[in-house]
Backbone:
């Protein structure tokens, strides 16, 4: 706001001049798909999870038995356990039945993808079958998760009314013994573990009704 001085009849007179409305700051535009050509679920989120002594021992023992890096085994174990519980809850079938059907599906994946596009997933599946060094988990474990898995874990922990570390510990106690085989089958068929688990359950249910 400013002022202008006019002379009228020989006497100065003040007049107020209003400044124009200030321009609002422009909000930053959301990333366009051209610069971020992937769905949000593919963006990794690092979760720092404190582990109590009993959970560290369980993780060390099971990861070493599976011959996988600790972080990878925990991710596979928790997600497979969560999926088995979720399918059981949605279908009304007991956990052990869901796990048995997925174990059967993992033994003989019927639709393994053989085209070159899936070569990296097939390589990953082959790597899972090999032995890998396992390191002991510390008091805090860093888990790099896709956003959709991170969100699903947080939602499941919330439904169980547990903090994330306690939910992970409780979920690990129910780990399906053949969960790594599930991950191998999922990668071999170019699916996420969740996509594979649901597709395999639906196929088994359809075959049982046929």
Residues:
């Amino acid at each position: 706001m400013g002022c202008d001085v006019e002379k009228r009849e020989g006497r100065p007179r003040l007049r107020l001049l209003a400044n124009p409305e200030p321009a609002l700051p422009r909000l930053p535009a959301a990333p366009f798909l051209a610069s971020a050509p992937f769905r949000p679920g593919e963006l990794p989120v690092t979760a720092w999870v404190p582990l109590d002594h009993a959970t560290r021992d369980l993780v060390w023992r099971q990861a070493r038995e599976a011959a996988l890096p600790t972080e990878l085994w925990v991710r596979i174990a928790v997600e497979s356990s969560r999926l088995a519980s979720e399918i059981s809850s949605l279908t009304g079938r007991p956990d052990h039945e869901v796990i048995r059907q997925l174990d059967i599906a993992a033994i003989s994946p019927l639709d393994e993808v053989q085209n070159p596009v899936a070569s990296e997933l097939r390589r990953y599946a082959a790597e899972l079958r090999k032995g890998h060094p396992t390191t002991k988990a510390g008091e805090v474990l860093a888990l790099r998760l896709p956003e959709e898995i991170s969100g699903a874990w947080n939602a499941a922990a919330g439904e169980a009314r547990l903090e994330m570390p306690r939910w992970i510990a409780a979920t690990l106690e129910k780990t399906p013994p053949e969960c790594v085989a599930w991950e191998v089958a999922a990668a071999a068929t170019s699916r996420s573990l969740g996509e594979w688990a649901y597709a395999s359950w639906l196929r088994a249910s359809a075959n049982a009704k046929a």
The helical segments are 53-66, 70-91, 95-107, 119-129, 147-159, 164-172, 179-188, 193-209. The chain has eight helices and four strands.
